[in-house]
Amino acid sequence: MKRGFDRMDTEGPEIEGIERVDNDIWQVPLGYKPGMRVPGRIYLSDKLFTNLEKEAVDQVANVATLPGIQKFSMAMPDAHVGYGFPIGGVAAFDAEEGIISPGGVGFDINCGVRLIRSNLEKSDVDGKVNNLLDSLFKAVPSGVGSKSRIRASESELEEIFTNGSRWAVEEGYGVEADLTHCEGEGCIEGGDPSQVSAKAHKRGRPQLGTLGSGNHFLELQYVDEIYDPVAAEAFNLKQGQLTFMVHCGSRGAGHQVCTDHLRNLTRAVEKYKIDLPDKQLACAPAQSEEAQAYFGAMASAANYAWTNRQIIMHHCREVFGQQMNMDADELGLDLVYDVAHNVAKLEEHDVDGGKKQVYVHRKGATRSFPAGHPDVPKAYRAVGQPVLIPGSMGTPSYVLCGKQSAMDVSFGSACHGAGRVMSRSGAKHTFRGEQIQKDLSGQGISVRAAHPSVIAEEAPGVYKSSSEVVDVVDRLGIAGKVAKLMPLGVVKG
DNA sequence: ATGTAC
């Protein structure tokens, strides 16, 4: 196997000081680093353990030192090193005594995934995949700095930042059911456009309905396997069915929000005299002006991301209509669900035998609420929320459903994807985009990309096995496998 | 992830 050149590729068989406490559960004990207020927990199989970076474990321990952290500083099986907090990290902080930190959310605020089902079967697109991909590639601007034809006015942008994807539906980019089939109905309450800088407004205005770059994609897929027939029926999924996935985030607007507020919260660390093991953990007391300003801006960026995915989905539906020569009812391109992978949310959880309000930071982690939870859409209340896990390019994606254990062990959270094992720079040295594209084509998977280098950076070999990651959360009962989706064609940013 | 460094 080809290998890259940087430390992310080194296989570390032993990480001193961490302990296995159960199958797939590793503990970072209080003594691992000074100042830890709670232990760390890393949910990981033996096999994935060989890819675990020591620096990611150190980050789990660093997060455990933050004021007001509850139960454990956690990392999902797809964890790897991130800015301050690990990607794949989950941490909940007391809403009164705790902190809020942009590092716990990441730069791509509400990077997330939506899944669309259809009345079509795989065979219905035989010989049409390439035309569909070409049209999708044209309909959704992609790549770094891409812009759309939509120009939201200042008042429209403020509405999007405040209320999320409802604006898009009211403007005709979708239907009411798209909102009820979306995490939080496409909105985090508390979005505050006045905390979003003029620069972030300016970057966001021309980017509604654009895909972006990196691991973001549009994917034509089919249901290859059903694991849980009851949940699959609730989600309106069946064997052989054509599905469609959108993976993207808040583009330049979210990035700018993170940049702006990191600067502000770095100053707040001194003001509130918070002792940090790593400057990248910049944060402020949850109820402070600075933390609430960040939260309002972060919620705005999250709302922008949901609107972005809503508009992208609408344009893709139009493409399907034209290419398949079918109307909306015939196509049945209904939104199954949309999940955020990078957000902080104010939620109620059971802690120490009582209910508590906490700011749950999920950075590369999916909410995974179980059956019966009031925040699960009514249509899915009997089985749990859909948990959408995109594969890396050319590998399967998974649909899971939220399970009760998630509420007990991970503040209602599960993994979010495969997780990188090689950096982008390593990947560009190791792979050539044209060759990867050819290899995938040989497997029956067509790829379109804004630039070949993106294909190299996102080559299947730079990610862990999504199947292995998903199996860990399934075994732990954090989320249960419902269906496996295989790619037919991909549009990369 | 990102007007891919300020």
UniProtKB/TrEMBL annotation:
It comes from the Archaea. Binds 2 manganese ions per subunit. One of its GO terms (molecular function) is RNA ligase (ATP) activity. Keywords: GTP-binding, Ligase, Manganese, Metal-binding, Nucleotide-binding. Its cofactor is Mn(2+). It catalyses: a 3'-end 2',3'-cyclophospho-ribonucleotide-RNA + a 5'-end dephospho-ribonucleoside-RNA + GTP + H2O = a ribonucleotidyl-ribonucleotide-RNA + GMP + diphosphate + H(+); a 3'-end 3'-phospho-ribonucleotide-RNA + a 5'-end dephospho-ribonucleoside-RNA + GTP = a ribonucleotidyl-ribonucleotide-RNA + GMP + diphosphate. Mn(2+) 2 binds at H247, H341. One of its GO terms (biological process) is tRNA splicing, via endonucleolytic cleavage and ligation. The active site is at H416 (gmp-histidine intermediate). Pfam families: RtcB. GMP binds at residues 215-219, 341-342, 390-393, 397, 416-419, 492. PROSITE patterns: UPF0027. Mn(2+) 1 binds at D108, H216. Transmembrane segments: none annotated. It is an enzyme of class 6 (ligase). Signal peptide: none annotated. Its EC number is 6.5.1.-. Essential for tRNA splicing and maturation. Acts by directly joining spliced tRNA halves to mature-sized tRNAs. Joins RNA with 2',3'-cyclic-phosphate or 3'-phosphate ends to RNA with 5'-hydroxy ends. Belongs to the RtcB family. Monomer. This is tRNA-splicing ligase RtcB.
